[in-house]
Write a structure and sequence with these properties.
Helix content is 72%, strand content 0%. By secondary structure, the chain is mainly alpha-helical. The protein contains nine helices and no strands.
């Protein structure tokens, strides 16, 4: 999987005009483990000098991530009676219980926080759909979580930690 991430990053390096599109697609599929490596690697190619490109990358990651979550939410709604038959639950049945408990405990916050929690990352949107969380509520949480994740992970990758600290006056 690291090789696939390296290939995507290499493609982005050779074709910088496609970076925002690649970020959108990667963010849509961010529930797949290797994708985060590729997503951060592609964002790192933007660099701190191109603010408009960085904003496009953050927007692409936000929209792609939210649409990916909404797709999983809809899969959960459609398959609510038999989640154990679909990925990732088929291979990891305990993920259903973990995701249900996470959603029950945190509600809307589970949608935002779940994006940052590896064990339930793919499960929360599906379970939220199966539990019939209101679509508007889920969508709002998904967009907020995707935006926060894009800023937290991609901006530092793009501008570099040193540059970010300088911009914030922390160096």
């Amino acid at each position: 999987m690291d090789q696939m991430a390296a290939q995507v990053i290499g493609f982005a390096g050779d074709h910088p005009q496609w970076i925002a599109v690649l970020v959108f697609v990667l963010a849509f599929f961010e529930f797949i483990p290797f994708v985060w490596v590729a997503l951060v690697g592609v964002a790192a190619l933007v660099g701190p000098q191109n603010v408009s490109h960085l904003l496009a990358v953050v927007a692409a990651a936000t929209i792609g991530g939210a649409l990916g979550d909404i797709s999983l939410y809809l899969i959960g709604q459609k398959n609510s009676g038999h989640l154990g038959r679909i990925w990732p639950f088929r291979k990891h049945p305990s993920l259903i219980e973990k995701s249900e408990a996470f959603c029950a405990r945190w509600g809307l916050g589970a949608v935002v926080i779940g994006r940052f929690s590896g064990p339930v990352r793919a499960g929360v949107p599906v379970v939220a759909g199966a539990l019939r969380m209101p679509a508007v509520t889920f969508s709002a949480g998904s967009v907020a979580g995707a935006l926060i994740a894009a800023v937290v992970f991609l901006v530092p990758a793009a501008v570099g930690a040193g540059t970010l600290f300088e911009m914030l006056g922390l160096s």
